[in-house]
From TrEMBL:
GO cellular component, one term: efflux pump complex
Superkingdom as given in the UniProt entry: Bacteria
Segments forming domain CusB-like beta-barrel: 227-297
Native species: Winogradskyella jejuensis
Pfam families in the record: Beta-barrel_RND_2, BSH_RND
Identification of the protein by name: Multidrug efflux pump subunit AcrA (Membrane-fusion protein)
Any GO molecular function: efflux transmembrane transporter activity
Domain annotation Multidrug resistance protein MdtA-like barrel-sandwich hybrid: ranges: 67-214
Length: 382
């Protein structure tokens, strides 16, 4: 009897354990929640076609419009002019940039001038006797002859006899010899052709300067030019005198320039055309890197959007009844950040900012500003 009771209790315990185990297992199972339908809020714009100016962005370095490379045409020792010949040194128009010692050469010029003076003085008695009518003008020429000044021009010869007589005495030959020497003497002093600044100095005071040696570079720091290369499709759109907006790379400074020249030929290698933009400002320096925005042309019945909104195949997203759709467009110009599109009907609601993971048929909710929401509520109350 006792064994029967123990057997029954064992069976009951086993059945109870199985039942309790199932209850515990079932209690750990969680119901998977039903995903809520997510409607993304998007930024939109309503299309209003208008005339869109196409602005071409390009860049380049500034170069002084007026610049001179200084070379020596004579040989001698570089003498001080009172100003150090160093980069950054400013000069006024007409001031001496470089002075080469010309003591020896100056003596040879004075010698040639003396020969000319003596040759004219030697014929004066003959002129008094044979050509009394021209004697006064030659006498006046001698009286005005100064060895310390530039040789004056010979008197004009009014007759053939006078011409033969003067030329036969070698006076004309001596005169042009002197003028040639004086012309070369002037090259020992190099003067500033305009007010400007020295940007490169390759010699110093006391240096021996040789014929043909480069001495430095001199620029006018008030006017600069920037060379830019544009696609050949814009060759007929650029006009001389057109205003151009310029800015530095940091976008902190803006300048106004104008197209001063446009090259008449297209580069065969790059298929680009070079334009030159003139700009004036005291804040500019040669070599500065600037960006230029040229107004190439205007496109009628077009809109301008972010380039990131244009999909492959020239399509964009539109919003119709809170559902995204795709339409074809006709892009007429692309810049780095913008695109100019045509064939988009007026009143079409398009995305103004890209939506990650967007697809046709996606449910969206156009974003409304505070002002728009207030207007909507006021309309509902009325």
């Amino acid at each position: 009897m006792r064994n029967i009771i123990l057997s029954v209790l064992g069976v009951v315990l086993i059945i109870g354990a199985i039942f309790i185990g199932k209850e515990i297992a079932n209690s750990k199972k969680k119901q998977r929640p039903v995903p809520a339908k997510v409607v993304k809020t998007v930024f939109t714009d309503t299309v209003v076609n208008s005339t869109v100016p196409i602005i071409i962005s390009t860049n380049g370095n500034l170069v002084a419009k007026r610049r001179v490379e200084l070379y020596s045409e004579v040989q001698g020792v570089f003498r001080s002019t009172g100003k150090l010949f160093r980069p950054g040194q400013e000069y006024k128009q007409g001031q001496t940039l470089i002075k080469v010692d010309a003591t020896e050469y100056y003596a040879s010029v004075q010698s040639a001038k003396s020969v000319l003076y003596n040759s004219i003085a030697a014929i004066m008695p003959d002129l008094r006797l044979d050509f009394p009518e021209v004697f006064p003008k030659w006498q006046n020429y001698l009286n005005g002859f100064n060895l310390d000044k530039t040789t004056p021009k010979l008197p004009e010869m009014t007759s053939e006899k006078e011409n033969y007589f003067i030329t036969g005495r070698g006076i004309v030959t001596n005169y042009y010899t002197v003028k040639n020497l004086e012309q070369r003497l002037s090259k020992f002093n190099i003067r500033a052709p305009f007010s400007g600044i020295l940007t490169e100095a390759l010699v110093t005071e006391g240096s021996l300067i040789r014929n043909g040696q480069k001495l430095g570079e001199y620029i006018d720091p008030t006017v600069y030019e920037m060379e830019v290369a544009l696609g050949k499709s814009y060759a007929n759109l650029l006009k001389v005198g057109e205003t151009v907006a310029l800015n530095n790379l940091e976008k902190t400074e803006t300048f106004t320039g104008k197209v001063s020249r446009v090259n008449g030929s297209i580069d065969a290698t790059t298929q680009t055309i070079n334009a030159y933009i003139e700009v004036k400002s005291n804040d500019l320096k040669e070599g500065m890197y600037l960006e230029a925005n040229l107004n190439a042309k205007s496109e009628a019945n077009a809109i301008e959007v972010s380039r990131s909104l244009v999909l492959d195949g020239n399509r964009i997203f539109v919003v119709r009844d809170s559902i995204l759709d795709i339409i074809d467009v006709n892009p007429v110009y692309f810049s780095d950040t913008k695109a100019v599109l045509k064939d988009v009907p007026n009143g079409t609601v398009i995305l103004s900012k890209p939506v990650p993971g967007a697809y046709a048929g996606m449910s969206v909710k156009p974003y409304k500003t505070t002002t728009e929401s207030a207007s909507t509520n006021a309309s509902s109350e009325n």
